[in-house]
């Protein structure tokens, strides 16, 4: 019992000595850097603009410096020459990377070509990609397929324009890219333009992107990974489960087809090539490796597509808007024309009216606003075209309890609005009802 007590008393001192010795050894071998705070390290010094904070720190500590992000020691390179030395001349030594906690879901980091170290499995997966997916011959063979999918997109847009149906450009482009990949890999469309499946798949991909890009405290303090304080791993597990469920259904169907008498009719697509690779003698690639590889492929292509889709929509929207909207001052990025309103918006609008006329467009943040400064224009909009201008931008506060969906002041002029208006006119503000309560009002005044 005495030995046990002595051991418990000595243990903290041993631990502290090891930490001090480790810190001293590390400080002798690591590049210089700002002194870390206890527990959080240098995280607070990165602020909301890490790239600017790192550029500022590099002026003090040089192009090679050490930061302590939580309990993770991080080396920051801020020089092109040093980056070339590390990533080109010593690429083998620096090829591995810190694996985020979300990549541990379903042991994805043990199968993913994006997270594996440069071992034999990584080389086999890389070889499979080079020979079965990105080979010039295969890309050339699928060129007609990609052209077909683009033509289907054009035909759908043309049909929608002829029928007057609204078009969700982002959804259509995402569906086209998704079907191009799925046809290359599986010889089938995963979504249709008139179905919700592409939106569901897009939500899954965006969900994974959000979790990958969200700062996770468990990445800076690995001891917290078991409790997953921000729920990143839990949400990623849900997304991966749904994506793997889609892949499993396709894999099982293809394996059954290859085993049946109709196996010869199987398409010579990426999945067939990879399955044939698995069936080779002494193959080091398993079906689980292929499933994670295709997950990486789909996520990479679709995530790279999203920024271009967003940019295309913004450019197209701006181009169309500039053609049909009244003139107005050029908006600043993000904030638009908010700063031009100043502390006295009515005076600022009157001043802008002299430059851009009685009908002008302002961009308040992301909201396009039409400003009318002429009685004649106001009469044209609010009296002669009251139906078209009856709806309004709903402030965020009115979404509480979905008030904007039931309030007569905020719902559009649909059947519900007409019924509420009729109830008000016949039951509340009718002349007979007001006359009946006249004596009551007089009594309250008295």
Automatic annotation (TrEMBL):
Transmembrane segments annotated in the record for this chain: none
Gene3D superfamilies to which the protein is assigned, alphabetical: Cytochrome P450 (1.10.630.10)
InterPro entries assigned to the protein according to its UniProt record, in alphabetical order: Cyt_P450, Cyt_P450_E_grp-I, Cyt_P450_sf
MF term (GO), any: monooxygenase activity
Pfam family, any one: p450
Family stated for the protein in its record: Belongs to the cytochrome P450 family.
The name this protein goes by in its record: Cytochrome P450
Organism name: Castanea mollissima
